[in-house]
Structure formats: C-alpha cells, structure tokens
Amino acid sequence: MNFTSLPRFPLATLPTPLDELPRLSQELGARILMKRDDLTGFALGGNKARKLEFLVADALEKNCDVLVTGGGVQSNHIRSTAAAARKAGLDAVGVFFASSGGERNGNMLLDEILGAQLIYANADKNATERAIENVCEDLRAQGRKPYLIPVGGSTPRGCVAYMLAVQELQTQLRAQNIQPDAIALTTGSCGTHAGILAGVKFFGLNVPVHGVTVSRPVDECRARLARLLTETAHFIAQPLDVAAAELIVHGEYLGAGYTKITPEARAAIYRVAQREGIFLDPVYTAKTMAGLFDLRQRGVLKENSTIIFWHTGGAPGLFGFPNDVLS
Ligand SMILES: Cc1ncc(COP(=O)(O)O)c(C=O)c1O
User: Would the CB of 188 count as within 6 Å of ligand 1?
Assistant: First the structure.
C-alpha cells in the first residue's frame, strides 16, 4: 500500500518549524534543535493533530457521526479529538480514567467549550478501553455511528502520520545539512514514538530515538512499541525491521506517575521558558526535557552531539495544573 496517499482530513499547519535552541545548547554542550509540533496549529496544537488527520478521514469514509476516545484528566488527546470532530461536523465523546474532571481549566475548559460529552469511567487504563467500547455499543443502540479512537490515537494510521512527520523532518535536515545524533521525545500511549521509529527506519534516517515514558512502565512501553510497529508494517504492507535494542525507553523521569509533576520537570518548564521563550507542559514534555538534561549530563547523549527534542505540545496542561507548576 502507498501509505503516503492514505485519505487525510487536513488539520495541522505543516511543516512545523525546526528551531535551534542556542542558549540551551550552550549550557548543555550539545546542539539542541526542537521540532515544534506544539505549533501544529489546530485547536492549540500538539502531536494529536497529525494523527487525527488520518483518523478523522477514516471516520468520514466510514460515514461515522461521532468520535469516541479516552484519556486522563486534562487529556490533550481528548481536546484535540473533540475539536477535530467539530471541524469535520461530527460529535465527540471523551471517556476519562478519572472519577471527576478536577480543575475546570486548561483542556477541561476547552472540552466544555467544544461541547464534547465527557464521561468519567473511574477505572484504570485497561478498564477505560473497555468503557470506550461500551460507550460505542450504547451509541450504536441509539442509532448512531461511532468511530472508536483508542487512547492517544495510537493505531497504525496514527503511526503513519508520524512516519510522514519523519519525512518532513528529513527534508528540513537535508536543506540545512544537519546530521542528528539522537531524537528525544515523550512516550505516552506510544503511537508517536512507534511512528517516529517506523519513519526513521523507512526513510533511512539512522538515528537513535530516545523515549521518556510519562505514564507506563518501560517494559509495557517496549511491548506496545513492538506491537504497534508490527501492526503498522502489516497496515502499510512494508517491512519495518526494528531491533529490540532500538526500542529505547527511559523510565527514570516518571516520578510518582502520570500527571504527577517532578521537581526536575518543574525546573525544566522554567528553564526552557526563560532561556528560549518556549512553553513545555507539566505532564508530558517537561518530564522529557528533564530526561534530556539528565541524559546529557550523564553522557548518554554525547557532548557536542546534535539532539532533536520533538516537542509534542500540551501547553493547555499548564492551566490545568497551575499549582503543580507554581509550587
Ligand atoms: C503533549 C503530549 N505529548 C506527548 C504525548 C504522547 O504521545 P503518544 O500518546 O503518541 O505516546 C501526548 C499524548 O497525549 C501528549 O498530549
């Protein structure tokens, strides 16, 4: 299958910039570039805009009338999905792991403005996946045509979006004659990471991809990455031979768990804002940046190397967890 011509519902403003971070580079003794997927534009940006282009197109092809997905409190994915649904003339249902929405600000406020139906499953991740399926069943019983998007939009279609993002990055790197030594990104539901790994393989970029997990144990992430890569290879009918050693996930920056900020992540938010005028978010990208600082300090990421930090967005989370960011 020629995956570059899969149906796509335009949402993102592409290509996103590839920015130099000169002050951070000087401080860290390595050239740090940032791939600005916080600036995908649609509905306050972030990585989900790319994935949703393919998922919404598929929903429309299947004549669905409501997008159903799930996530944690302050989920960027639910906000982006709800907005994408509206742009496509569809309804949206967001199923949360939590028992209530917490702060009615940030993404939760945006979900309300978008008129998404919000359901609180009060369950762990696996039970929430089942709750999403149950919501779809109920909608079908009411005569609706739901389109189920798994948590994070991490499906082969979502991965294809990130394969193409790697092609976009490769074009930018070639134009500027840059050979990166590492890519660092946030690993959540693993679709972005798997898509980037698949893209790196497929387009022959030859660069290690370092994921920082912000929600799941390392082993679970590596298993999910392997499964998503297998499914994506099957979906595009192309081999994607990624060795186990290439599934690099760092677990030491997670702290007390998903949405629980760490002192290092908090410091990273202030440092990147005050050095470069760029906002990180407390749940995802700040932990990854804290990881990058530490990996660089420990020499895992080498001195004078060229490192691409893939910014996946999430700034509305700053307004969802203001006290965590301030204290
Ligand atoms: C800001 C941000 N970064 C990273 C991720 C992780 O992406 P993925 O779920 O594809 O691993 C998410 C997921 O919701 C996110 O909102």
Answer: yes
The count of domains in the chain is 2
Question: Other C-beta atoms within 10 Å of 264: how many?
Answer: 16
Residue 324: pLDDT band with limits 50, 70, 90: very high
Distances in Å between the Cα of 139 and the Cα atoms of 71, 87, 147, 304 are 19, 21, 10, 55
Is the pTM value of this prediction over 0.90?
yes
From 77, 149, 247, give the residue whose CB has the most ligand 1 atoms within 8 Å, as the site to mutate: 77
| Segment 201-244, tens digit of pLDDT | 999 999 999 999 999 999 999 999 999 999 999 999 999 999 99
Question: Is residue 314 within 6 Å of ligand 1 at its C-beta?
Answer: yes
193 lines ligand 1 (CB under 6 A): yes
Q: How far is the CA of 193 from the centre of ligand 1 (A)?
A: 9
Residue 143 confidence (pLDDT): 98
Q: What CATH number corresponds to the domain at position 213? A: 3.40.50.1100
List Cβ neighbours of 300 (8 Å cut-off, separation of 6 or more): none
Pair 21, 75 in one domain: no
Structure tokens, 98: 């939590």
Nearest CA to ligand 1 atom 12: 188
> What's the pLDDT at 91?
98
